[in-house]
């Protein structure tokens, strides 16, 4: 696990050391920087040593093939790939480095190597003979990869903040990204909050031609919805149980001890059960609770830990502790983010003793995400693929637009509807935004090209919210504490198996967790099987009217809004002032705006 960075211009090589240093938290165990004198390409990394700690230093080279690589992540089938490569005549110099496996695999297969990889990854290879950089981000988007491409210069990094050290990377806001953020509470790929920085989307690779200074980005994986109607439900259950056990075990590949975050829910509890049932010894588990809800959270987690005899750690915090770390969180998040924050403290506690932690992220998205698709199955709302295609071409999907704008719509537009943004937040013109958020979601819906809403909503989840909100937050918060967070429920073999299930079998409105319950029923205490989903809800209403009110009035007051020139003064008059005066409840809008303004303050933008 690392932070990686690279530049293509000798003029930028002096900044490379600073780019790597700015990500020191991602890899405190070592660092390496190399400049290729002939091409001017510089590669750098900071390393969190997990596999082959002694021999896995980067940048790593295959000199006879004129290849160099920097790599962030883990390839969980690297032992099997290494064996196959050795049988084909490859000679390895490291003991078990997955980085060296990537180099040899690229030398054998070129860009077709990606189909062979099982894991989480963001890597870049400098191929001197072809005069290119080749890189990729894993199928689910677990690991990030930012880049800047401007005026014949190209640079990349694991974190946006590292690219800001380059003199030619500006800090001008991408107003379309801001427009989407205000509705989604995250910025969808491939854009970022800044005009000069982009991100490689999940399941995409890129090639940068050093001679032509040309970048090409390609998709190499998308959610494969391919229903198998022949397998009876009972056989699906056994297939899923077998696959989950295999994936969880595969994702323990490590030369250092691992831990598990344990929320007391089915997903994380099932992972702990699968590991211990499979013979994994001396497992450490971590639970962080908050005083208002700690009893349910910590008691359930404790029951799982007692069942399997794990080395269990509990921390109970006051919610107000988050306020002390808010600006630090914003710095590590890289982009404005209005979602959940408590997992910061799980990774902080894990980081005191461990480098690797397994989490249950992705379990909800596999099986319908608590039936988010239900609204689209109302009579007259969902249309067939052909009607959707025609409607998308004509720019008129009124029923869809109404659905996503309602309080229970697809991406929770209660944060800010397009109408609210156009009329109140931005005022006239909206800074020239070309594609509204509703139009973005319409386009993704049409492009999915699927025949039922259960599959379509899943497809959009795997493109947007899962990689760009949940996994982005998981990566940034874990790496802030020098911890590698692993998500075995997002092993692509498990994902592909799940989406072979017909939609009506895979998902249930009455019991959204039916399959996860079936998979883990022998692995968790009985009281967990029917326990309602619990999660800690930030006390945003009281914060924005209480402890954070001075910050709200400072960052969202008329003077600040006028000086910035981004938002209309109607933000203060129509949203913020009525909220803090207790005339109306605008908690989500105020919080989302505040987190953007706090990002501007921390990153010294506007």
Compact overview of the structure:
The chain has 27 helices and 17 strands.
**CATH architectural type of the largest domain:** 4-Layer Sandwich
Q: Low-confidence parts lasting 5 or more residues at pLDDT below 50?
A: 382-401, 404-413
Number of DSSP strands? 17
What's the structural domain tally? 4
Structural class, by secondary structure, is: alpha+beta
Question: CATH superfamily membership of the largest domain, which one?
Answer: Aminohydrolase, N-terminal nucleophile (Ntn) domain
Q: Strand sequence of the main sheet, in spatial order?
A: 2-3-1-9-8-10
Structural Rg: 24 Å
User: Might you state the CATH topology name of the largest domain?
Assistant: Glutamine Phosphoribosylpyrophosphate, subunit 1, domain 1
Number of helices: 27
Share of residues in strands? 15-25%
Largest sheet: number of strands, sense, barrel closure? 6 strands, antiparallel
Mean pLDDT: 90
Helix content: 40-55%
Distance between the termini: 34 Å
- The first-level CATH class name of the largest domain: Alpha Beta
Which of globular, elongated, flat, extended, rod-shaped describes the shape?
A: globular
């Amino acid at each position: 696990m690392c932070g990686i960075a690279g530049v293509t211009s000798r003029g930028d090589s002096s900044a490379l050391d600073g780019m790597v240093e700015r990500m020191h938290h991602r890899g405190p165990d070592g660092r390496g920087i190399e400049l290729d004198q002939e091409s001017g390409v510089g590669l750098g990394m900071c390393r969190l040593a997990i596999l082959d700690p002694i021999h896995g230093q980067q940048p790593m080279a295959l000199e006879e093939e004129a290849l160099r690589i920097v790599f962030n992540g883990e390839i969980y089938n690297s032992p099997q790939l290494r064996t196959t490569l050795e049988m084909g005549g490859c000679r390895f110099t490291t003991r078990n480095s997955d980085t060296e496996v990537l180099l040899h695999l690229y030398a054998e297969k070129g860009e077709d190597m990606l189909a062979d990889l099982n894991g989480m990854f963001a890597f870049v290879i400098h191929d001197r003979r072809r005069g290119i950089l080749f890189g990729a981000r894993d199928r689910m988007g677990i690991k990030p990869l930012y880049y800047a491409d401007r005026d014949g210069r190209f640079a990349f990094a694991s974190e946006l903040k590292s690219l800001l050290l380059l003199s030619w990377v500006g800090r001008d806001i991408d107003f379309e990204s801001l427009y989407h953020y205000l509705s989604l509470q995250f910025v969808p790929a491939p854009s970022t909050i800044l005009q000069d920085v982009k991100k490689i989307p999940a399941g995409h690779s890129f090639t940068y031609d050093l001679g032509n200074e040309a970048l090409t980005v390609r998709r190499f994986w998308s959610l494969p919805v391919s229903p198998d109607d022949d397998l009876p439900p009972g056989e699906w259950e056994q297939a899923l149980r077998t696959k989950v056990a295999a994936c969880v075990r595969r994702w323990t590949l490590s030369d250092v001890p691992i831990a598990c975050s344990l929320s007391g829910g089915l997903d994380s509890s099932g992972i702990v059960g699968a590991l211990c049932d499979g013979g994994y010894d001396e497992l450490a588990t971590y639970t962080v609770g908050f005083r208002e809800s700690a009893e349910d959270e910590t008691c359930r987690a404790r029951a799982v830990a007692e069942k399997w005899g794990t080395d269990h750690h509990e921390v109970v915090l006051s919610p107000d502790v988050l306020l002390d770390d808010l600006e630090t969180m914003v710095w590590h998040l890289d982009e404005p983010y209005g979602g959940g924050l408590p997992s910061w403290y799980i990774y902080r506690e894990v980081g005191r003793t461990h480098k690797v932690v397994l989490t249950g992220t992705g379990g909800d998205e596999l099986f319908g995400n608590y039936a988010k698709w239900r609204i689209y199955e109302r009579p007259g709302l969902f249309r067939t693929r052909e009607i959707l295609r025609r409607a998308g071409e004509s720019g008129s999907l009124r029923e869809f637009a109404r659905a996503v704008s309602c309080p229970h719509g697809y991406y929770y537009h209660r944060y800010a509807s397009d109408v609210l943004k156009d009329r109140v937040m931005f005022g006239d013109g909206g800074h020239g935004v070309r594609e509204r958020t509703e139009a973005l979601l319409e386009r993704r819906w049409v492009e999915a090209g699927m025949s039922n809403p259960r599959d379509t909503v899943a497809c959009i989840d795997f493109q947007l919210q899962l990689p760009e909100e949940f996994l982005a937050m998981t990566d940034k918060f874990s790496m802030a504490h020098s911890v590698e967070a692993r998500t075995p429920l997002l092993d692509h073999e498990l994902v592909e198996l799940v989406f072979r299930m017909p939609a009506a079998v895979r998902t249930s409105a009455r019991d959204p967790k039916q399959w996860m319950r079936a998979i883990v029923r022998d692995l968790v205490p009985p009281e967990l099987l029917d326990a309602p989903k619990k999660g800690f809800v930030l006390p945003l209403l009281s914060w924005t009217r209480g402890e954070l009110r001075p910050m709200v009035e400072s960052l969202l007051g008329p003077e600040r809004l006028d000086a910035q020139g981004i938002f209309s003064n109607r933000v203060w008059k129509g949203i913020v002032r009525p909220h803090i005066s207790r005339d109306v409840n605008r908690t989500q809008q105020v919080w989302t705006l505040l987190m953007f303004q706090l990002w501007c303050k921390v990153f010294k933008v506007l």
